[in-house]
From TrEMBL:
Source organism of the structure: Malassezia caprae
Official protein name in the record: Fluoride ion transporter CrcB
Keyword Transport: no
Keywords per UniProt: Cell membrane, Membrane, Transmembrane, Transmembrane helix
Species lineage: Eukaryota, Fungi, Dikarya, Basidiomycota, Ustilaginomycotina
Summary of the function given for this chain in its UniProt record: Fluoride channel required for the rapid expulsion of cytoplasmic fluoride.
GO CC term, one of those recorded: plasma membrane
InterPro entries: FluC
Pfam short name (any one): CRCB
Membrane topology (UniProt): Multi-pass membrane protein
Length: 316
């Protein structure tokens, strides 16, 4: 019970800061003439941290202090700083030329494939870079102070409550930043749901032997979280386009997309699972099906209503 309480608090703390990191990196890399969507940098940073935090030596060092620290950096921060639902929605936008660029269909296909390949490639590269840093740091040789389990549960639970309350307070006080603060407030709910869905995954590690049937098993918990997040993302986008909104409701729907759906889905965990799945065709099938189903969901829930009802592409 104490371990679960500490882990839940760690997920809340990590999700708030991970979502802030994602939105901050997107804002930093949004400028005229950008060659690729700015979300890719958040995906890369999250995958680097996931690679580092999931390294055997790093995990051993963090667990020596308190097991919840591993959850904070992996499920919480790295999982929330990356977003599968945002990624596949942007791939759909490229396929559909949702931003109405002056180009023909083949260029739209190439744009979507470019975003797909760049995200997968940079995600895997970031994961391996994180592992390389873990090899170099030798953190397991550092003597870290150990927190007693019951004391750690109280500390992490308090940190989670205070972090979530602080985000809500900022949302109420700084109205001009509600498109960001509302996302941060909603992110812990998505991250906690993803953490619970992860129980459906087969325990796996790229370095530990496991039965052949487990090596072929898909991580259904992550797949379900990513699919559910994509469904929610598409529904919120369509809702933005079909109704007349105030600025507050537009920001609230942005918060549901970037916060709830964004933190419910993850690319960093997906990349970690791809390196663990064997044989390679199983990993490829898992990636392709996840990607294809996500794009299809966006097509059905966003594309069809937008094209048949002639909806605007922004919140009106």
């Amino acid at each position: 019970m104490a371990t679960a309480t500490a882990a839940a608090g760690a997920v809340v703390v990590g999700s708030v800061w991970g979502t802030l990191a994602r939105l901050g990196l997107i804002g930093l890399n949004r400028y005229d003439g950008q060659s690729i969507k700015p979300l890719i940098w958040a995906q890369a940073v999250g995958c680097v941290l996931m690679g580092l935090a999931s390294h055997t030596r790093t995990k051993r060092a963090l667990e020596a202090a308190h097991p919840a620290l591993v959850v904070l950096f992996t499920t919480g921060f790295a999982g929330s700083s990356t977003s599968f639902s945002s990624w596949v929605f942007q791939v759909f936008q490229a396929f559909a030329n949702d931003e109405h660029w002056d180009r023909h269909g083949l260029h739209s296909v190439m744009d979507a494939l470019t975003q797909t390949g760049a995200t997968v490639g940079l995600g895997l590269a970031g994961l391996w870079a994180g592992h390389a840093v873990g090899d170099a740091l030798l953190l397991d040789r550092v003597r870290m102070p150990r927190v007693p389990p019951h004391a750690g549960a109280a500390v992490f639970a308090a940190m989670g409550v205070l972090t979530w309350a602080g985000a809500a307070l900022l949302c109420g006080l700084y109205t001009s930043y509600r498109d960001v603060t509302l996302s941060v407030v909603m992110a812990p709910a998505g991250a906690l749901a993803r953490w619970q869905l992860a129980r459906l995954n087969v325990p796996r590690s790229a370095s530990e032997p496991r039965p052949l049937r487990e090596r072929h098993a898909w991580p259904w918990g992550t797949a379900l979280a990513n699919l559910l997040a994509t469904l929610l993302m598409a529904a919120f986008v369509t809702l933005q386009r079909t109704r007349a909104h105030t600025q507050l409701t537009c920001h609230a729907l942005d918060g549901l997309q970037d916060g709830l759906a964004g933190a419910l889905s993850t690319v960093s965990t997906l990349m970690l699972e791809l390196t663990a799945l064997r044989p390679m065709r199983t990993a490829f099938a898992y990636l392709f099906v996840s990607w294809a189903v996500g794009v299809l969901v966006c097509l059905l829930l966003v594309g069809v209503p937008t094209w048949t009802m002639h909806l605007p592409s922004t919140c009106s």
